[in-house]
Design brief:
Length: 365
Amino acid sequence: TCALPISVYSFDCSNDVLTTIGFESLAMNTSNDAIRASWPLKIGADAYDVEWTYIDSAAMATGYYGTIGSPLPARIFDNNSSRVTITGNSYMVPLLYDGRGHLFVRARPVQILADGSRKEAQWGTATARFEFAGHENSLNWQATTSFAEEGKRKSVLDYFDGSLRSRQTVTKDNETQNTIVAESIYDFQGRPVIQVLPAPTLNTTIGYTRAFNQGLNSASYDAGNFDALGGVSDCARTADSMLTGSGAAKYYSPLNPLKDQGFNQFIPDAKGYPFTQVEYTADQTGRISAQSGVGKDFQLKSGHETKYYYVGAGQEELNALFGTEVGLARHYFKTMVRDANGQYSISYTDMAGKTIATALSGTLP
């Protein structure tokens, strides 16, 4: 018997270019985090290269990139674009750009040959343009997008306050398309104290979520819920619980609307404490005195928090470990960490911060 020959569609790099490409209809000030670009299928194409870039309005007004009606792709896409290779004839292009500007997209067909090499058509002149008002122009933010094969991607946005401290991190669950929010909350001295567990929202668009985590008597959980400047008695104060009707406290509670479905049945109840809290030493070193775990049973003052102790190393114990050539004890430091089970971990460091010995201490389990 003879093997049947492999049929390959004819493909010409000059003739099989795309002549049209367009965006879905969206308003310029849309809150969507992506816009769909599409183009007609080409017979003989196994894949498509999709390329996009963003030119802000000020740069576009200079004329270097052409005009709105007659753009210059050679300059628009030169050394300043993102590209993916996909098999379909549409792609959701991210809309995570700051300030008013223009999003340009182009595509070209690609044929994959039997030896795995690529035969690429020319880009052509078909270019789609979308004028965009910008994402969260009133806020400070930074977007990080990671790409994988077949155009898969994941975008993570960090939103910052006026002092450029990270306040909220937002990403999207690619399976459910719901956004996931994690927050950092600072004390009155600007130190990070509360780290809230990530929790999904019902929103499918990446954006800043205002008052996501709320206090019992406040619109937004903030330093007033765990930090006070009233006097010495406040040193024993622990963080207030969060309102279980919103944010992470709702997700990690019996009020979770999906608590009876799938893996949601195994989400633990944080009892209003879906966060960790850091307590600093009462000096200017910025060292951590104690750190809570997640949940009510592991909060500060519960006896199950992690405690840190900073003391000087004893000359006798150093001599026992290293002999008399170890030098003077004042050149070394001793740090003890007590975990939630009461087990102590001890480390000895020199003046360069290098660890010279470690040990365990405390009652045997």
